[in-house]
Protein: 7-carboxy-7-deazaguanine synthase
Amino acid sequence: MRPMTKEATATRVELGELLPLMEEFYTIQGEGYHTGTPAYFIRVGGCDVGCHWCDVKESWDAAIHPPTEAAAIVANAKKYSKTIVITGGEPLMWDMNHLTSMLKAEGLQVHIETSGAYELSGHWDWICLSPKKRMLPKPRIYEEAHELKVIIYNKSDFAFAEEHAAKVNGNCQLFLQPEWSVREKMTPLIVDYVMANPKWKVSLQTHKYLNIP
Ligand code: SF4
Structure:
């Protein structure tokens, strides 16, 4: 088979038929509503949100992650788990319709972890919205989100969390999660906050305590 031209590759990336795949792995969901349940993670490269505490900065540059056939990603994923989590990077930088249609056609549960900074595409069973101050979510996702997970890095993030809780739909589950590098300082504040404001729940990065990816 002839190698694809740069233009043909770019067109297929635009359509979501190829995605810059950074890594994929079978593990335990460590955060939020589905904590403790097995899932196959697909990490798509590319993010320009620029959180200074980001723990996957190597995902930011999409160009270093190989454009990978969505069909090949699906063929691999379905061998491992009934639950697939698409994460990044920021997966909504890419058109997710193609990949998620194929995953759904296989009868899989399809979840996303997103900042919401780009327009929502794709077919999702679970949307975890984790808004970031540097690029706020697009309006539509507040109606669609099943889970709002706000990362607490400093005290002002509690007010940020409330701003976003006021925008999500009434069924959305609310989580506060300490940023890993400041967890010792922020976790006690989150515990107090959740006891005083019980609409929230605590989320911890349990995969890091378990020493798994
Ligand atoms: S949105 Fe996520 S991947 Fe992007 S910089 Fe922030 S934490 Fe990192």
